[in-house]
Amino acid sequence: RRREALLNAVRNAADHGLPVERYNPDQLIAVMKEARSPRAHGAVEAELTRIYLTYARDLQTGILTPKKIDSGLVRDVPLRDRTAYLKAIESAAAPNRVLRALAPTTPEYARLMKAKLVMTRQGTKGGWGATVPAASLKPEDRGQSVVALRNRLMKMGYLQRSASRVYDEAMSQAVQKFQVAHGLTPDGVAGAGTIAEINKPLDARLQSVLVAMERERWLNRPEGLGDRHVWVNLTDFTARIMDNGKLTFETRSVIGKNQSGRHSPEFSDIMEHMVINPTWHVPRSIATKEYLPLLKRNPNAVSHLRLVDSRGRTVNRGAVNFNAYSERSFPFNIKQPPSSRNALGLVKFMFPNKYNIYLHDTPAKNLFSREMRAYSHGCIRLAQPFDFAYELLSKQEADPVTAFKTHLNTGRETKVLLEKQVPVHIVYRTAFTSADGRLHHRKDIYGRDAKIWNALRNAGVALPHANG
Length: 468
Known about the structure:
By secondary structure, this protein is an alpha+beta fold. 36% of the residues lie in helices and 16% in strands. It has 14 helices and 14 strands. Strand 8 (347-350) and strand 9 form a beta hairpin. Helix 12 crosses helix 13. It is globular and about 85 Å long.
C-alpha cells in the first residue's frame, strides 16, 4: 500500500507544479522489477525511502530555499523533521491519505491548483488566441483590433459570447473586470498599459501560478497563519487584517522603491505593539547616504531633524564640521520628533525584526492615489493607519477610537501593547485568488518571481502544454 500510494503520488506530482523527473517513477518501477536478491531489495527500499522523503518535503514546504534566490526573500521555511515523515507513513492504515495531507490545506492553494488546471486546458485549445494589434482602444472604436480584443476577453472569461465588432458597453465592462483583476485603474478603456497586460501570453500567467503555489508551500506552517493575522501583499500594494480566513479590514499601502537596497523584504513575524506619536530614528543608511551630503552643503538643511550624539544629547549643528566626516565615520544619530510632519506620521505598528521593517502612517498621502505605489525606503506605509489601529485595538478596547485618540491628543510618544499579539506576513504574490475563485495577477515589480521561475525550471518544473 505504501509503494502504491507513493508511486501514484509522484506520477501526479505535476498537478502541484512539482518536477516529476525528480522522483523518476518509471525508473523506480524498472529497478523494482529487476530486484532479485536481498541486497537488491534493500537498495530498492532505500531508494523508495529517499524518494518519499524528497517528495514529502517538496510538497509540504517547497522545492526551493528562498534565501538562495533573492536577497529580499528572507522568509524562514517551516521544514519538518524527516523522522516524522517516516513514522507517519510507517504507521498509516491508509498511506495515500498521509501523502495527500502533505500539501497546504489552505483555500488559496486549492484555488491556485484549480486555476492551473483551467489554464492548462485552455493552453491545449490554443491559449487565448491572437494578441490585440493596437496600441490602445476605447469605447466606440471598430475594426479588427476590436474583434481581437473581443475574442481574447471571451477566451479569458471576462466577456460573454459576442459577435460585436464595436467596442460597446459590454466590452467596456469586460475590460473593467480585467483591469480590476490585474490591479489597473478600472476605467473600461483599453489604454497602452491594459493592452500590454491583455497581450501577456497564457504561459507567462501560468508561470506566475506555479510560482504562487511554491510560495504558498513556503508558508505551510504547522500553526497556520494565525486566526487573526496581517497580510501584506507587496505586489498588490495592500495591507489586510484577516480573521479566521475572512477579510476584516483592508487599506492601500506604499512599499519599497524598485531600487537596490530599498526593496521591501518578505518574511513573517509577530506584531507586539503600536507607537502613537512616534519619533523617527533615521536609519544610518539614510542618515549617511542622503542627509550627510545635504548637511555638508548646508549645515541648516533638513532643519526639522535633530542631530544627537552617542549619549542622546542634541548637538548644535553650527559647531559641527560635516565635511570632516564620511559615511563610515559620521558619529551622530538623526531623529525627527513626533509631529504631523514626522516621516512615520502619527502611528507605527511594530513587529521587531532585524530588517527594521514595520507598518506606519505617512504625511505623503498623495501617493496612495497612484496605481503603482513603490516609493518608500522599504517599510510599509498605510493609507488608513488610524482605522487600522482601531481594528487592532477592537479586540482589547470597548471603545478603540477613544482609546487611540486619547493617546494621540497628548502629542507624546506612547507605546500601546497588543494584549494578543498578531502574526504579520509580508508576501509577494503576482498571482493570487479571491474568495469567489477569481484569479488575479500583478506585475513582478522587483523581478523576484522571474528568479523563482528560473530556479523552479532548473529544478525540473515544466509548464503543462500551453500556447500564448
